[in-house]
């Protein structure tokens, strides 16, 4: 079933990269994103790391993470979300790619620094720091769009 709602496609892509592409009718691209999601998820131990992070066992999460694989995840994840949004046909905002690009970049930086970055005495680990970086990147991108649209 095809929909005109870019919000729906963004939310499906957040839930699982590739689903937004399937909704857009891009079956091959959707299957590629799904395959990449599964490969990176399995190779980086992402599901185990998510569970450990939610339980607060950050040290074990860090030791369980395969960072060589997890480094790919932020860019694939955000690109799949952006692609589903862009292909939905509802993109009329100039520079709308900026929140996605900055989120992917900062999310990757978050993965790099996640084994050592602390706020106070709290180690954030491979899940919480990249998530904070994702949201920070989206906010920075939206602020830049606001500034640039005033010019």
UniProtKB/TrEMBL annotation:
Keywords: Membrane, Transmembrane, Transmembrane helix. The chain crosses the membrane at residues 97-115, 127-145. It comes from the Bacteria. The keyword Membrane applies. This is Uncharacterized protein. It comes from Oxobacter pfennigii.
